[in-house]
Amino acid sequence: MSCWQTIQDYGLRSIGIGERLLPRDGFTLCEQITLIGSGMLWNIYFGTLALVAGFFLANLLAVAKAAPSRWARKPAEWFIFVFRGSPLFVQFFFAYFLFLSLKQSFPIFTPFASAWLGALVVLFFNTAAYSAEIFYGALRSIPKGDVEAADAYGFSGWPRFRRIIWPTMLRLGWPAYTNEAIFLFHATVLVFFSGFPSRQQRGDALYYANYFADKTFNPFVAYPILAGYFILLTLVVIAIFGLINRRLNRHLPQEARRKLRIRPNLIR
Amino acid sequence: MFSYCTDPETLSGLSWLSCYLTTGKHMSLYYAVPTVLLLLALTAPLALGVGFLGAMAARARFAPLSWVGKSYIAIVRGVPDVAFFLFFVIALDQALEWLLHKARCPDWPEPVRQGNDFVVCSAAKIPPGTAPQWIHESYGFMLAVVTFAIVFGAFVANVLFGAMRAVPRAQLETAAAYGMNTRQTFWRILVPQMWVYALPGLGNLWMVLIKATPLLFLLGVEDIVYWARELGGAKTARFSDYPHPDWRMWYFLGLLVFYLIFTRISEIFLERLMQRLSHGQATTGGEALRKADA
Amino acid sequence: MKTILLSTAALALTAGFALADTVRMGTEGAYPPYNFINDAGEVDGFERELGDELCKRAELTCEWVTNEWDSIIPNLVSGNYDTIIAGMSITDERDEVIDFTQNYIPPEESLYVALTDDVDIMGVIASQTSTIQSSYVAESGATLLEFATPDEMVAAVRNGEADAAFFQGAYLKPIVEESSDLTFVGDPIALGGGVGMGLRESDGELREKFDAAITSMKEDGTLNTLLTKWFGEKQKTF
User: Fold this and answer.
1) Which domain CATH number covers B174?
2) Which end of chain C is less crowded, N or C, counting CB atoms within 10 A of the terminal residue's CB?
């Protein structure tokens, strides 16, 4: 079977399109690369949606944690503490149990017991908590001068937050947030590994890598392929976040930014 | 454990629970707690060392060394730790044994790779085949520490690399003005000054490291999560004196509390450390301390 | 039987196998009654008793270690332990990578277990990831739901996630006997070539020793006694 045929058969296997049965013997390199790549669709799906949705919740949580009101502050603090303070797969375990029991009384929760929604919700809360802590830290270290300048120009309330505080917060928190995004994509491999059951052998990249490592009894092919995919994915994430970072910093004097790059050469 | 535990079927309530919670298997769970703590205590400094070397390599003026440092950071950071653990430990183990094999048995007639098998001479076995079980376990533990250190070292290297760039240039120029050479500037100014910029990132990594310990079972170390899962699963009366339904919920709740307390203690400690490092620094934190003192 | 014992001893002497070395027995420890961790935190079960007896007959010093199921074969070929004695069915796929002794449990039945009798075994079927049973379900056309441990698989039937679970009968039988809610459905299906001990392909001498020990246990009936003790009266014997 040619490699092109394999790609047609298994390229979308992870979402249930193509051959029903997984390859059983032979296990060419092409099959391994195709199926593990097909599994990456799930990792990208979980990572991207959780990241986008988590970004908005994180902003809310960070502002709530920095708020003077106790009623806003305490819930946000506890949410962040619980989700940052426990291992992800303990969270998966509890979420799975919770959704299963909710499902029994409320049929509306049925999709939550499947990975595509249940695991997504957990990852969404998890990344929201981690990012909120990053943004909260950034909120606290906004230079006093910026806020004073805003006051002097007559900004207050929402416009002041929207135009001055929020962009500065993003700018300061961005490098750490990039790291969090990388960690989130890595965390998506835990979904089928220790959280939710996989259905009809539809799983993520690690699920298929595990399948091949189990069938060929050789961990030194499938897992490095998985690693290669993730290195690529991480490079893409870093590139996208780098572009956003450039946009966030575009108002800064360009000269200063270039100097920043040269700096390491000066100290040697 | 207690004298009345000989016949658990006759017990009920608290006395049953006291016997149940002190079985040999539960002792393994309790014993796993110091194991995990010891692993963290050993991994943190080692990862810091690896990360420091990585950051120095990435900054090196000698291009190949800089490539090595940068690709180490990029590759290891890019791979999910689970995937790394699944093949790296076996590879590391085989690499060590292969090196020892080359050194100790230079005239071994058979190939090391025989089909799927990896066979070295018995003098090159780590630990030796006659070693008692605890040596095997300690060796597995050390492999886990080294693997964790290599993975987290890459993240530490990335944080330190950034922190070294964040030290205000004026401070380094002042050092040069005082007549320090580059090496002196590096060790006397840059390294002491970078920690305040590195600490938030390092603190975050510490939190991630704590939460990565459930992956230890992949490395063959039986940690608290392994035992909690093992103890919590439903037990029938045929294979256990203490039959019970699926109690994983309660064991995992215990784990949750353990990790939350551990996180809270770490947070308090890191907060204190940050305050201490911020003294006299040209940051908002340092400024706040200066004002508080005045 | 005496002659067999003598011949194994002779073999051991001539082969120059380092007798001082302990044989490390790799098992999973999460699979009663085959092997499990008992209340005292030690490896226990049918295979523990069998393995100890085999080691005694082959005059070997043995030591028990546990390993995750997923990486149990890679760790064997990499030399972290010397045998796998973990309820592993003899299959062609596995036989290509490692060697098996003769089987010490005859080919056995895999069974469907469900909450009611009228369950469709072509519906949602739970099984453990990477077992011969999960491959079977995947090929049968039913919707396969895979769990990391057999424990979670049974839990999924109880909470209604899966219509039924399909797994090795010996594992399911004690669970069904002791609980009122579960029942067997459908016909038993014979999979695999029985359970054997896995060894490295380069370890021919060790394999012969264990093979001889298993033969001797089959001949004097001790193996059958052990099988009945752990798997019940209805267990197929040799």
Assistant:
1) 1.10.3720.10
2) N
SS3 labels along C173-207: HHHHHHCCCCEEEEEEEECCCCECCEECCCCHHHH
CA A80, chain centre distance (Å): 16
CB A268 within 8 A of CB B182: yes
B112 CB within 8 Å of a chain C CB: no
Q: What is the pLDDT of residue A142?
A: 81
Q: Note the pLDDT tens digit of each residue in B84-112.
A: 888 888 888 888 888 888 888 887 777 78
- pTM, full prediction: 0.86
**Domain coverage including residue B183:** 3-209+223-293
Q: Using one digit for the tens of pLDDT, what is the confidence trace for B122-175?
A: 778 877 777 777 888 888 899 999 999 999 999 999 889 888 887 888 888 899
CA–CA distance, C38 with B23 (Å, rounded to integer) = 9
Q: Is B257 on the interface with A (CB under 8 A)?
A: no
Structural domain contains residue B214: no
The tally of domains found in chain B comes to: 1
Q: Which residue of B has its CA nearest to A220?
A: B87
β-strands C62-66, C23-27 pairing: parallel
* Number of inter-chain CB pairs under 8 A, B vs C: 101
Please judge whether A189 and B186 are an interchain contact, meaning their C-beta atoms are less than 8 angstroms apart: no
SS3 of residue C51 by DSSP: helix
pLDDT in tens, B58-82: 988 889 999 999 999 989 989 998 8
CA pair distance B111, B39, nearest whole angstrom: 36
| Contact check, Cβ <8 Å, A217/C147 | no
Amino acid at C49: E
Residues in Cβ contact with B197 at an 8 Å cutoff, skipping those fewer than 6 apart? B162, B163, B166, B167
In chain C, CATH 3.40.190.10 sits at 2-106+193-231, 109-190
Q: What is the pLDDT of residues B171-189, one digit of tens each?
A: 888 999 999 988 899 899 8
Distance separating alpha carbons of residues C173 and C181, to the nearest angstrom: 13
